[in-house]
Every structure is written in C-alpha cells, then in structure tokens.
Prior knowledge:
The mean pLDDT is about 90.
Amino acid sequence: MFDTKEQLEEYIEKILNNLELFEWDVLHVSTNTDRAEVMEILSKSFVNDSLKNDINFLYITDIEHIKYSKIKQAIFKDIVAEWVSFCNEVLHISKEQAIESIKKDGRINFINSIVNNYFKKFHRIIFSEMFETFLEYFNRVPITKSKQIFIDKILQSSLNKDNSSIAIRKFNQLHNRIRIAQDKKNKEILKLKNRIRELRTELNSSAEINFNEDNELLYDIEDLEEDLEELEETSLYHFDDVIANLRDNMIDSMRVASLGV
C-alpha cells in the first residue's frame, strides 16, 4: 500500500488525527445511523457477555456494584481492536507495531475522544439494554423474599429518581404493571396469530388456484409472520406508559450516575 516507511508513518499520523478518516477507514462508519448500529451490537455484547457481572441486573447483587467506568473501557478496547485488525489486514504491520503506534504523541487522547463522543451520543442505547435485563430479572427469576427486597431497593434508589405520582416504588406495583403490559402484548400476539391462521385457511381452501392471487396471499402471510416475530421480541414498556416512564427515568438516572467516569 505504501512504498516507503515514511509514507506509512505519514498516513498513520494523518489517520490518528482525523476523526472522519479514522471512522471511515477503520470503523467503517460515516453517519449517526452507522454509529448507532455499531453501538447496538456492542451494547448487547457488553451487557450479555463481557460486562455482564458489572452492568447486567441478572448478575449484579447490589446497585453499588454497577461499574459504569467499565463501559468506556470496553468501548476503548473494541476501537483499539479494530485499529489492530486494520493495521494487520490493510497496513500489513504487526499487532505490537499497531499498539505502539497509538501510544505515541498523545494518540491515546484521540482514541479517548472517540470513546467519549460515542458514549455521550449513544449512552441511551447501552442503558436501554441494561434496563431490559432489569425486566428480564423480574420475569425470569423466581419470586423470593430476597428478590422482592432487591427490586424494592432498586426502585427506591438513585436509579429511580422520579417525584411524579405515577412513579413505581414497590415490587407489587411493578408486578401489576408488568402483568397488564404482558396481557396487552399477548392479546396483540393472539390477534396476529389468528389473522395468519385465517389467511392460511383461505389459501388452503381455494378451489381454483390462481398463481398471482395465491402469491399475494402468501406475501401477506409472510409479512404478518415477520410482524409476529418482531412483536414477540418487543419490550413490555411499549405496552404500558408507566413502565415506559420507569424506563426513561432509570436510563436518565444511569446517565447521571455515569457522569465523570
């Protein structure tokens, strides 16, 4: 790619001082939509795997154990990993050389500026994923006294700073709202399943098969099946304003708690 070592060094100097070039060549993003998609992938990885003991409510035992600082550290590591991969595959230099190249002349600050910018713009994606594990913990873990105490502690903590009259403060309140939301979701799912069943019956009962008409019917069924799959994955906060309010409140509380890390 480069004829001389000087040309290579000149390019490295340029790319590690130019955010637009670094994002395009190394991270393969150019728009906020691209960046958000990357952060969605990273968020799921962080919350469900690499940082699950630090930010996933299924694994933490106390809200004081939430380590927001590790989120930025993980983003930093992923960006460095992308840089190392780029250096190896495109610039044909070793991992050691790639790591050494970002240690020079304040280039670490350049990487940190990307981390801070991504975290500032897309922290809501990460904290949304964390909130989903809170709902998952509520739904999956058997009801015990310790579980109720843990839920109450979270709902009455700095993670739920909300003085409105609709704020959820107790396990039983959340239990009732989740039951309401789940009932609404189940009704929507049942409605879609019934419609799919009706269309399949109509398709199978056709006395004379018209190729074009039958295909239209099949397309409708396929579209509804996609809608059903999406609906089944939809979070419960979409079906209850009170849970949605709790989600927004906890996400904002996490944002405040993460300031300065």
